[in-house]
Design a protein that fits this description.
By secondary structure, the protein is mainly alpha-helical. The chain has one domain (2-130). It has 6 helices and 2 strands. It has helices at residues 2-22, 24-31, 46-63, 65-71, 75-99, 105-130, and strands at 37-38, 41-42.
C-alpha cells in the first residue's frame, strides 16, 4: 500500500512541476481554448485529477514496480517504465487526435514523451525510497 501512496504523491508532485511550470506556456498556446484557466494558471478539477492519479498509480504499481523489485534500477527497468508511460500517454494522445478537431501534433509528441518520463521517474523514485 505504501508503494501506491508514494507513486500517487510522486505523480502529483511531478505533474505540478510539469503542468504548472515547464509546459504551462505551451499548453496555454496550443490548448488554451480547451483549458480551464484562472488568470494565467491552469485550473485543476480535483476529483477527476485524483481519480486519474489513482488509476495511473495502480497501473505503475502493477506493471512497472515489479520490474524494479526484481531487477533493481537498470536499463531494463528504466526502459520498461518508459515504454509503459509512452504507451499510456500515447493511447490518450492518439485517441484525442482521432476524435477531436484541433488536437495539435506538437502536443502529441510533448505529452507522450512526458508520459514516458513521468512513469519512469515515479517508478524509480518510489523504488529508491522504499529500497
Amino acid at each position: 500500500m505504501i508503494y501506491l501512496f508514494l507513486i500517487f504523491i510522486s505523480l502529483i508532485l511531478l505533474d505540478i512541476v510539469w503542468i504548472g511550470f515547464v509546459a504551462s506556456k505551451k499548453y496555454r498556446e496550443d490548448l488554451g481554448h480547451m483549458l480551464i484557466l484562472e488568470g494565467d494558471k491552469i485550473k485543476f478539477r480535483k476529483i477527476s485529477g485524483i481519480i486519474l492519479y489513482i488509476f495511473l498509480a495502480i497501473l505503475i504499481y502493477m506493471f512497472s514496480v515489479p520490474v524494479y523489485v526484481t531487477q533493481g534500477v537498470n536499463m531494463t527497468s528504466l526502459l520498461s517504465s518508459f515504454a509503459l508511460g509512452i504507451l499510456l500517454y500515447g493511447f490518450y494522445e492518439f485517441t484525442n487526435r482521432a476524435i477531436l478537431k484541433d488536437w495539435p501534433k506538437s502536443i502529441i509528441i510533448l505529452d507522450t514523451l512526458w508520459g514516458g518520463l513521468l512513469v519512469t521517474l515515479s517508478s524509480c523514485i518510489t523504488y529508491i525510497i522504499l529500497k
